[in-house]
Amino acid sequence: MARHLLERVDLSSGRVTTSLPSNVRMEETSQFRTGLGLERDPATFRYHTAPNGSTTRLEPKFDPDPGLLPIIEAFLRTAPGHIFIVENALARPSDPVLSSYGSHLLMFDEEVYHLLLPQDRDEKIISQTLREAGYPYPPLVGALASGAEEIGLSGESQQITFVQLRASAERAAKIIVGAYDGEGYLIWSRPSP
Length: 193
What we know:
By secondary structure, the chain is an alpha+beta fold. A hairpin with a 4-residue loop joins strand 8 and strand 9. The longest helix has 11 residues.
Protein backbone atom coordinates (compact mmCIF):
# COMPACT_ATOMS: atom_id res chain seq x y z
CA MET A 1 0.00 0.00 0.00
CA ALA A 2 2.73 2.46 0.93
CA ARG A 3 4.44 2.01 -2.42
CA HIS A 4 1.20 2.60 -4.32
CA LEU A 5 0.41 5.69 -2.28
CA LEU A 6 3.85 7.14 -2.95
CA GLU A 7 3.58 6.41 -6.68
CA ARG A 8 -0.05 7.41 -7.23
CA VAL A 9 -0.72 10.35 -4.91
CA ASP A 10 0.70 13.86 -5.20
CA LEU A 11 1.46 14.29 -1.51
CA SER A 12 2.73 17.84 -2.02
CA SER A 13 -0.77 19.00 -2.95
CA GLY A 14 -2.46 17.93 0.27
CA ARG A 15 -2.57 19.02 3.87
CA VAL A 16 -1.01 17.11 6.79
CA THR A 17 -2.46 17.23 10.30
CA THR A 18 -1.97 15.41 13.57
CA SER A 19 -3.42 15.38 17.06
CA LEU A 20 -0.95 15.60 19.91
CA PRO A 21 -1.21 16.21 23.65
CA SER A 22 -0.90 19.85 24.72
CA ASN A 23 2.35 19.17 26.63
CA VAL A 24 4.25 18.30 23.42
CA ARG A 25 6.71 21.05 22.49
CA MET A 26 6.52 22.48 18.97
CA GLU A 27 10.08 21.38 18.09
CA GLU A 28 9.13 17.76 18.90
CA THR A 29 6.36 17.75 16.30
CA SER A 30 8.80 17.33 13.40
CA GLN A 31 10.65 14.39 15.03
CA PHE A 32 8.53 11.68 13.42
CA ARG A 33 10.86 8.73 14.15
CA THR A 34 11.30 9.32 17.86
CA GLY A 35 8.80 9.05 20.65
CA LEU A 36 7.17 12.01 22.29
CA GLY A 37 7.94 10.74 25.80
CA LEU A 38 4.29 10.32 26.70
CA GLU A 39 3.77 8.98 30.20
CA ARG A 40 2.65 5.39 30.61
CA ASP A 41 1.26 3.83 33.75
CA PRO A 42 4.14 1.84 35.35
CA ALA A 43 1.56 -0.62 36.70
CA THR A 44 1.05 -1.86 33.14
CA PHE A 45 4.73 -2.75 32.67
CA ARG A 46 5.74 -6.41 32.78
CA TYR A 47 9.26 -7.74 33.21
CA HIS A 48 10.88 -10.75 31.60
CA THR A 49 14.04 -12.32 32.96
CA ALA A 50 16.06 -14.32 30.44
CA PRO A 51 17.96 -17.49 31.40
CA ASN A 52 21.19 -15.46 31.49
CA GLY A 53 19.70 -13.20 34.20
CA SER A 54 19.12 -10.10 32.05
CA THR A 55 15.80 -8.37 32.59
CA THR A 56 13.73 -6.63 29.94
CA ARG A 57 10.84 -4.27 30.62
CA LEU A 58 7.85 -4.99 28.39
CA GLU A 59 5.59 -2.01 27.84
CA PRO A 60 2.09 -2.51 26.50
CA LYS A 61 1.24 -1.24 23.06
CA PHE A 62 -0.71 1.98 22.86
CA ASP A 63 -4.39 1.61 22.17
CA PRO A 64 -5.44 3.31 18.95
CA ASP A 65 -5.62 7.03 19.57
CA PRO A 66 -9.20 7.94 20.45
CA GLY A 67 -8.91 10.98 18.15
CA LEU A 68 -8.21 8.74 15.16
CA LEU A 69 -11.26 6.51 15.54
CA PRO A 70 -13.90 9.22 14.85
CA ILE A 71 -12.01 10.34 11.74
CA ILE A 72 -12.19 6.83 10.28
CA GLU A 73 -15.78 6.35 11.47
CA ALA A 74 -16.95 9.65 9.96
CA PHE A 75 -15.31 8.87 6.62
CA LEU A 76 -16.94 5.43 6.44
CA ARG A 77 -20.31 6.96 7.34
CA THR A 78 -20.12 9.68 4.66
CA ALA A 79 -20.81 7.51 1.59
CA PRO A 80 -21.69 3.88 0.84
CA GLY A 81 -18.55 3.32 -1.24
CA HIS A 82 -16.04 4.54 1.35
CA ILE A 83 -13.43 2.13 2.70
CA PHE A 84 -10.41 2.09 4.98
CA ILE A 85 -7.61 -0.21 3.89
CA VAL A 86 -4.55 -0.67 6.08
CA GLU A 87 -1.53 -2.86 5.58
CA ASN A 88 -0.29 -5.30 8.19
CA ALA A 89 3.44 -5.18 7.53
CA LEU A 90 4.27 -7.98 9.97
CA ALA A 91 1.68 -10.56 8.91
CA ARG A 92 1.93 -13.11 6.13
CA PRO A 93 -1.05 -14.99 4.62
CA SER A 94 0.22 -18.24 6.17
CA ASP A 95 0.16 -16.87 9.75
CA PRO A 96 -2.23 -19.02 11.83
CA VAL A 97 -3.27 -16.06 14.02
CA LEU A 98 -5.09 -14.47 11.07
CA SER A 99 -7.91 -17.02 11.41
CA SER A 100 -8.79 -15.50 14.80
CA TYR A 101 -9.08 -11.95 13.43
CA GLY A 102 -12.49 -10.36 13.06
CA SER A 103 -11.59 -7.83 10.37
CA HIS A 104 -11.98 -8.35 6.64
CA LEU A 105 -8.62 -9.63 5.44
CA LEU A 106 -7.18 -9.16 1.97
CA MET A 107 -4.10 -10.97 0.67
CA PHE A 108 -1.77 -10.01 -2.15
CA ASP A 109 1.23 -12.28 -2.67
CA GLU A 110 2.86 -12.28 0.81
CA GLU A 111 1.11 -9.09 1.95
CA VAL A 112 -1.85 -8.83 4.33
CA TYR A 113 -4.32 -5.95 4.43
CA HIS A 114 -7.28 -5.18 6.68
CA LEU A 115 -10.41 -3.66 5.16
CA LEU A 116 -13.16 -1.65 6.81
CA LEU A 117 -16.41 -1.06 4.95
CA PRO A 118 -19.21 1.42 5.75
CA GLN A 119 -21.03 -1.21 7.85
CA ASP A 120 -17.87 -1.49 10.02
CA ARG A 121 -18.08 2.15 11.17
CA ASP A 122 -18.41 1.28 14.87
CA GLU A 123 -15.46 2.62 16.91
CA LYS A 124 -14.98 -0.77 18.63
CA ILE A 125 -14.65 -2.51 15.26
CA ILE A 126 -12.28 0.20 13.99
CA SER A 127 -10.15 -0.04 17.14
CA GLN A 128 -9.99 -3.83 16.93
CA THR A 129 -9.04 -3.70 13.25
CA LEU A 130 -6.22 -1.25 13.96
CA ARG A 131 -4.91 -3.53 16.73
CA GLU A 132 -5.10 -6.56 14.43
CA ALA A 133 -3.14 -4.59 11.81
CA GLY A 134 -0.38 -4.17 14.40
CA TYR A 135 -1.10 -0.64 15.66
CA PRO A 136 1.16 1.12 16.45
CA TYR A 137 4.06 -1.08 15.26
CA PRO A 138 5.21 -1.16 12.59
CA PRO A 139 4.08 2.30 11.68
CA LEU A 140 0.54 2.25 10.45
CA VAL A 141 -0.03 2.95 6.74
CA GLY A 142 -3.62 3.13 5.63
CA ALA A 143 -5.90 4.88 3.17
CA LEU A 144 -9.42 6.19 3.44
CA ALA A 145 -10.66 5.80 -0.12
CA SER A 146 -13.84 6.03 -2.15
CA GLY A 147 -15.31 3.82 -4.85
CA ALA A 148 -15.30 0.38 -3.23
CA GLU A 149 -17.69 -0.99 -5.86
CA GLU A 150 -15.66 0.39 -8.78
CA ILE A 151 -12.48 -1.03 -7.24
CA GLY A 152 -14.24 -4.34 -6.59
CA LEU A 153 -13.78 -4.47 -2.80
CA SER A 154 -16.71 -5.87 -0.88
CA GLY A 155 -15.21 -7.80 2.03
CA GLU A 156 -16.38 -11.09 0.53
CA SER A 157 -13.10 -12.01 -1.14
CA GLN A 158 -9.88 -12.54 0.78
CA GLN A 159 -7.78 -11.63 -2.27
CA ILE A 160 -6.82 -8.22 -3.57
CA THR A 161 -5.09 -7.62 -6.87
CA PHE A 162 -2.29 -5.26 -7.84
CA VAL A 163 -4.84 -3.23 -9.82
CA GLN A 164 -7.19 -2.98 -6.81
CA LEU A 165 -4.36 -1.85 -4.54
CA ARG A 166 -3.32 0.77 -7.06
CA ALA A 167 -6.93 1.95 -7.49
CA SER A 168 -7.36 2.20 -3.72
CA ALA A 169 -4.28 4.42 -3.57
CA GLU A 170 -5.45 6.58 -6.46
CA ARG A 171 -8.83 7.11 -4.75
CA ALA A 172 -7.34 7.92 -1.35
CA ALA A 173 -8.99 10.97 0.18
CA LYS A 174 -6.89 10.64 3.33
CA ILE A 175 -3.73 8.73 4.18
CA ILE A 176 -2.97 7.80 7.76
CA VAL A 177 0.64 7.12 8.71
CA GLY A 178 1.92 6.18 12.16
CA ALA A 179 4.56 8.52 13.57
CA TYR A 180 6.36 9.51 16.76
CA ASP A 181 7.54 5.96 17.46
CA GLY A 182 3.96 4.71 17.70
CA GLU A 183 2.74 7.50 19.97
CA GLY A 184 0.88 9.37 17.22
CA TYR A 185 0.00 9.60 13.57
CA LEU A 186 -0.12 11.98 10.62
CA ILE A 187 -3.11 12.39 8.32
CA TRP A 188 -2.63 13.62 4.77
CA SER A 189 -5.85 14.95 3.22
CA ARG A 190 -6.45 15.44 -0.48
CA PRO A 191 -7.32 19.04 -1.32
CA SER A 192 -10.98 19.72 -2.05
CA PRO A 193 -11.78 20.09 -5.76
